Amino acid sequence: MAPFLQTIRTKLVELGKLNPTAVEMGRSVLLPSLVITALLLGMGRMGMLQGMNLAAYDHLIRLRPDEGEDDRLLIVGITEADVQTRQEWPISDRTLAQLLEKLEAQQPRAIGLDVIRDVPIEPGRAELLNQLQQSDRLITICKVSASNDPGFPPPPGVEPESVGFSDLVIDPGGILRRSLLVVVPPLPESGVPFVSHLCSQPTTSDNQPNTLLSFGFQLALTYLAEEGIQPELTAADELKLGSTLLSRLQPTTGGYQNADASGYQIMLDYRSANRVALQVSLTDVLADRVKPELIRDRIVLIGYTTPQAKDEFYTPYSAGATDSQKMPGVVVHAQSVSQILSAVLEGRPLLWSWSNAQEGIWIFGWAVVGGVVAWYVRHPLKFGGAIALAGGIIYGTCFLLFLRGGWIPLVPGAIALNAAAAAVILVDRFNRSTYGQTVYRQVKSFLKLDIEIDQEKLEKQVAEITESDYFQDLQQKARALRSSAGTHNSAAPSSESTPSNNHAADPSPVKPTTQSEAADELDYFQKLRRETKRLRDQRRQSDDQEGS
After folding, report:
1. C-beta separation of 205 from 196 below 8 A
2. I want to staple 353 with a disulfide (CB 3.0 to 4.6 A). Which of 94, 131, 254, 299 is the partner?
């Protein structure tokens, strides 16, 4: 421990001589920044920041400009006025059959029926089933079973390729932020009633996974098929449409921590708060009040928009809504369809996020900025202005990247900035306080005492070696060898002797080496004794200084 402390002390002294101000700033800024970054990353991994991160995400969604209606889509809403006008609840099979017939006549590219029809709602059951089974552009819905929900099947007789599940992923707090594109029904649990249907079977008849596509994804694929675009799987098992990669959502994407990312999910990138597509009513279509060009070659989605259907969801727009805070399910599906079409056909960026390492660098960077501001700017007003400016840069950077699909940590960056600034101020005040100075002196005294104790141990060890009998014997042998070496040198022939005499008088090759080594040993031990004496003198001087 002592050598380590000695090394630290030496390095600090050397750095202090080079640039004391830089060393002091580094110690006061970098250390708090590292600690705060580690704390924020740890809190993030435990999910403690998820609520704030998702709230910031919702805020950025509301802040974006409205992109307006998608002219590739048309929504036929079954409104409360339709229910009251026709005096039907639910809307009968015959009414739906008439609606589908009207729409089919205008040649839309795809029709999505977001209405549960697994059981008859008479009159008109046969008419509706005939429409559903004969159409090659119609997609109906089912609901995937769960441990506490048997789900519901599609209408009977409909081909599996014309079915999409209507399940949506709801975050804690009831907010809809994600889009589920592909899923395989889970295995049934023992002891739980199981209803067998297309969307409850985990495997097909040939024991292959029963892969189901979502309602919105089926509609988007039907539309893109006529554009010559088919879905592909990459080597990493990610979906690709044309040149557009639909990156799979991970449990730690963006502000999420340990999110349930089962199936194939992406972030649902809303197009508009209220008008994702043109909306008309059931009555408008049946009364021929909708122009044919508003239907032709479009995706037409049919679903309930009346509140009594209880098919509404909270979205990121709900917190800022002044009227209705919920979005009808058929409109949510339209948002998903529009997102996929816009990404594939127009290059609209899909939402992406940074890796954990990139987020860590971002957070640490803003912690350092906050610490440096607190270190240099001491005037309260200037300090507040500098922190506000840095916070504005964080906010503006996050928003600009969000417009390009980037979801980066707004909340952790802002917390790091302010927390590091506060920490540097508190550390500086602590260092200037009487208590802080006392602690500093105690730590310094501990380091010095530990090093001196280590030096004293070294002195004792050297003394034990030099005063031992073995050491004395070695000294005597070394003196004898040196004396012998001196006698031999005096008896050696002169350099003027003949070569033959010189050759005859050469000593053996071993003896000079032994004499040299003995001399070296003697020199070494003499140096060791001198060093011991020096250490003792230094110790006495130190004791005298402390005593005075």
Report:
1. no
2. 254
Structure tokens at 366: 């803003």
What token pair was written down for 329?
A: 């399910």
Residue 240 β-bridge partners: 232, 245
Q: What does the alpha-carbon distance between residue 265 and residue 249 come to, in Å, rounded to a whole number?
A: 5
Residues 100, 135 contacting (CB under 8 angstroms):
yes
Task: Copy the structure tokens of residue 373.
Answer: 């501001």
- H/E stretch holding 73 reads strand 73-78
This prediction's pTM: 0.76
Residue 183 has pLDDT above 90, yes or no: yes
pLDDT over 80 at 534, yes or no: no
> What helix, strand, coil percent values describe the chain, rounded to 5?
55, 15, 35
Place of tokens 């893109």: 224
145-to-57, 171, 177, 204, 330 alpha-carbon distances in Å: 30, 19, 21, 15, 20
Tens of pLDDT, residues 287-330: 999 999 999 999 999 999 999 999 999 999 998 766 668 999 99
Q: What are the sequence ranges of the domains in the chain?
A: 2-46+355-432, 57-348, 438-489+507-547
Phi and psi at 299, nearest 5°, equal -90, 125
Structure tokens at 426: 């508190």
180 sits in which H/E element: strand 178-183
Radius of gyration of the chain (CA): 41
Interval 122-144: pLDDT, tens: 999 999 999 999 999 999 999 99
Q: Helices 20-45 & 410-432, crossing angle to 10 degrees?
A: 140
Distance CA 249, CA 206 (A): 30
- Which residues, in sequence order, are bridge partners of residue 180? 265
* Mean pLDDT, range 266-271, rounded to an integer: 96
